[in-house]
Automatic annotation (TrEMBL):
SUPFAM superfamilies: Glyoxalase/Bleomycin resistance protein/Dihydroxybiphenyl dioxygenase (SSF54593). It holds the Pfam family Glyoxalase. Residues 2-113 form the VOC domain. This is VOC family protein. PROSITE patterns: VOC.
């Protein structure tokens, strides 16, 4: 089996409110629009906001977005009116994270990978 692309699909309870969050607050660029839906660029993937949700989000689901500078990203989000649920901090696994939620309560995890973290090493070379 070969997977050619991927996308996370969000079914919001209020589509316009969620579009404003992802477009205006998070600042995701629009990849494409179609009747009833909008697809955003989200780093190496896409996030689609379409259809209509009917219940609360699954508590164990989160959208993970990597940023270059977590402190600057959080400051910018605050300027845009976002409520930060968890302040930036270094996690035991070595990543800096901050959390917020979309209008329906879907967790959004902003992540900065420190320069010394193994995810930053080139594993193709010894000592990477």
């Amino acid at each position: 089996m070969e997977f050619l692309s991927s996308r996370l699909i969000v079914r919001p309870r209020d589509r316009e409110r969620s579009l404003a969050f992802y477009r205006d607050v998070l600042g995701l660029a629009v990849y494409r629009e179609f009747p009833g839906g909008t697809v955003f660029f989200a780093g190496n993937g896409h996030l689609e906001v379409s259809g209509r949700g009917h219940g609360p989000p699954a508590p164990d689901v989160a959208i993970w977005l990597q940023v270059r500078d977590l402190d600057a990203a959080v400051a910018q989000l605050r300027e845009r009116g976002a409520a930060i649920d968890r302040e930036p901090r270094l996690e035991p696994w070595g990543l800096r994270e901050s959390w917020l939620a979309d209008p329906d309560g879907i967790k959004v995890v902003l992540v900065e990978i420190p320069a010394e973290h193994p995810m930053r090493r080139d594993s193709r070379r010894p000592g990477g």
